[in-house]
Amino acid sequence: MTFDYVPKTYDCAYDKFYSYLDYWMLDRFFCFVDEFDIVGVRWSQPTTISKEYFLRLLVEGSSARAHGNGKNSFGKSDDVSTEMMQFHSLLDHGAMWKTKNGSVICSAITYESNDNIISSFLNMRQNLFSTTQYPFLQENLILEFLDEKKFRFNRKADDEDHFILIYYDEEHKESDSIRSYDDLLRKAIAYSAPGSFRSHYTSSFTRNRYVSDFAKLRANGFCQLCGQEAPFLDRNEIPYLETHHIISLADGGEDSIDNTVALCPNCHRKMHSADPDLLTEDIKKLLSIASLY
């Protein structure tokens, strides 16, 4: 994808992007550009590219190249597709932005309510990743509501619209509004996987964060083996517990809510270091706890 260079002056930016910008709101545009280190833009995207290409741009960045219209492409093209049109209501007034470090983010100004935006985003995210063999990556596709008064610059937007950002971030943790108990339980069950499934990217076994996060949420801040309160709060002020697979993945255990518990660091070390013959009762206790939703 070729990105248009974003000029650094008001007049140049307006002359180049006048059909998208309101001159009297250019201060908001440059606030957005500066805040996210924007260097390039592709307007009216991603609704005319393929789902695979959209995902690849967000995950791999601006270096991702479109596939298709070449040998054995059978007429398919990542650059010309209607696959993303089904998400038009979420991606209205969309744009793809290239940042200074080469990453790509997607913005949109949508007229849906907050709840509908979250629901539409989760549905889109599941749809995007359901066609890949690595659905565990989907939790790293993030939805963020931006401050409309600070950033919203699109001349076509109404006062009731919401300015949103969609991007890929391996370290980001979803907001509580997306991660309710029932929703997290549903996702943890949906994305449970056999322990033999290995990651495409590393030699280690795949672990789904939905499963891990649900185990910690279910523990409610207490170690599920010794029953003691978590020893400290992490940097997000969440009780610190560690996810433990009762039957290890290497031994064929599943990465599922029935095989995971949340333990304090001391008990977690015990389960991995003590004599296995002395852990029989602990294993039975943890399996019993894990079987209770």
Quick structural gist:
The chain is of the alpha+beta class and 293 residues long. It contains 9 helices and 8 strands.
Describe this structure in words.
The chain folds into two domains: 4-168, no CATH class; 181-290, DNA Binding (I), subunit A. The chain is built from nine helices and eight strands. The protein has helices spanning 10-17, 26-35, 51-60, 114-130, 148-151, 181-190, 209-219, 265-273, 280-290; strands at residues 4-5, 38-43, 95-99, 104-110, 141-145, 162-168, 242-245, 260-263. Helix 6 crosses helix 7 (209-219). Mean pLDDT is 81; it is low at 172-178 and 196-206.
**Order of adjacent strands in the largest pleated sheet:** 1-2-3-4-6-5
Q: Could you tell me the strand content as a percent range?
A: 5-15%
Our Rg estimate from Cα atoms comes to 23 Å
| Count of individual domains | 2
Structural class per helix/strand content?
A: alpha+beta
The main β sheet shows up as:
6 strands, antiparallel
The H/E string reads: EHHEHEEHEHEHHEEHH
Total number of helices = 9
Shape: elongated
Would you tell me the overall average pLDDT?
A: 81
Distance between the termini: 46 Å
The oligomerization state is: single chain
**Low-confidence regions:** 172-178, 196-206
Number of strands: 8
The share of residues in helices is: 25-40%
